[in-house]
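Justification of resources, computational component.

The compute hours requested in this renewal are based largely on the per-chain cost of generating structure records like the one below. Each record pairs the submitted sequence with a full structure-token output. That output is archived, and it is also reused by downstream analysis tasks.
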Amino acid sequence: MARKAVGFGENDLRALAGTRSFERGLRYLDAVSGLEVGDGSVTAGVHGTDVYEVELNLDGGTGVSGRCDCPYGQEGNFCKHCVAVGLTVLRQAEAVPRQRAAARARASALETWLGALSRDDLLTLVREQIAEDRELRRRLELRAAAARSDLGTVRERVLALIDPRPFARYGYVEYADAPGYARQVEEAADALRALTTGGHAAHAVGLAEKAIRVLGEAYGEIDDSDGVVGQAVAAVTEAHREACGVARPDPERLAKWLADQVLGDWNDAADLDPLDYAEVLGPSGLARLRHLAGEARRGSPRGWAEQYLMERLVKAEGDVDALVALYAQELVPSGATHLRIAEELESAGRADEALAWAERGLRDTASEAHADGRLVDYVCTRYTRADRPAEVVRVRRDRFRAERSLAAYQQLRAAARAADCWETERGAALAALREDARREHGGWYRGSVLIDALLDDGDLDAAWREAVGRADDRQWRHLADLSRETRPADALTVYLRLIEPLKEPTGDHVYERMAQLLLDARTCHRVLGTEVEFTAYLAALRVDLKRRRKLMTILDRHGL
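The structure output for this chain reads:
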């Protein structure tokens, strides 16, 4: 009921915070004060070493996210203070819908009141606010300068707004300061839009380009883990595009600027797509951009940015053959490029050519241990559609021989079962895995794929035979778990062996693992009818480790 009312539950908070922070948050429930529920968010103060401000965003019933200005929260973590506020909200869940409605009513009432004020009353109100709020005054001063065409002041203020130095206390804009800097960058974007709508689009173009340059050079020294600065930079680039649409700058000069943005290694912030400017560039600008892209690619044939720019332009022209020729110049060993070519050809209605390219990709990657699985799936899907099951088996067999992985084994099994030939294929596949196991470290192959394959097949008897000297602890545990009822004595031996090394280390995680193994061992004793032996074993273990109080608590909780 609580989850339905607020859009999240205790499990969501635990998943976000982790068990440790969640448990600590439980202790701070009495430290929450000033809880305020808005339409889509909750704010509160939490008293700890200091009074920390917490804001939880309720994502329309799909979850919750949070921010806190404590040191741990400033690193981007969902901290114990966020947990405390979230739990407080859950405990008041029945009142949340009413509080949200009240928040909307207050907002509506404020809007009505403002609409009823006279011009003089509004001016008085604004003057009062700008006298107290420096940030608001700065924003309004910038808008006023744009409105009266004071271009020098606008330029000066925009460049001041995007200057990261006031936020870089140690030569670097830290995570906690990024949102404040992002707000200033967004102000700069608003000012650029105001220039455009005020009849100064050409000036906005030049100033936006300068701003984008400054932002690109600064971005590498900003901790933008939440992406807030990147979003603000996107607003600046959008303001530039809008200004270009009005000012209509020289197409060839714009093409040169766009090419520099995409190809320059200094710009990590602005994610520009030159084709967003296609209408402004026109035929001459696009031709210039294509020429520049060609020059850049010849100078750096393997450069990622050069490849991206040329691909975007060729794709926009709709010339599939030119795009295929471009991709074919750099065929990566994994077969990923072959797949891209196949997909482009198929989209163009050239299915036979697409399959031929994909098949070529399989041939070219035949010796690669890690070919692109999507390419293999592409070919197998088309063979299946064409009712060619034997070909699907052949492809999966070849990939298994190259990869020798559990995933490749599972895919071969699925294909061979569909073709009614799994018994034959399985024998050959297991023989290959046994040979691998014998070769590896003189037969002491840890974590053999052979064991995983047998476990995945459910062939437990074979897995027990092959496990000695080959299985790792994970596989032994899995084998024992699957065999508790059918081979309890063997499973018990495994559990007791895995418990021994856990007697030395400490920590909740270790204790929980030990408790689970003990529960499994108890199950085996019950099946064997030897519960008295388990009772004696457990009593001796508790005596040996009695000084570990947390372990004793965990064992008690599990009924051990």
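The longest strand covers residues 51-58. The longest helix spans residues 278-299.
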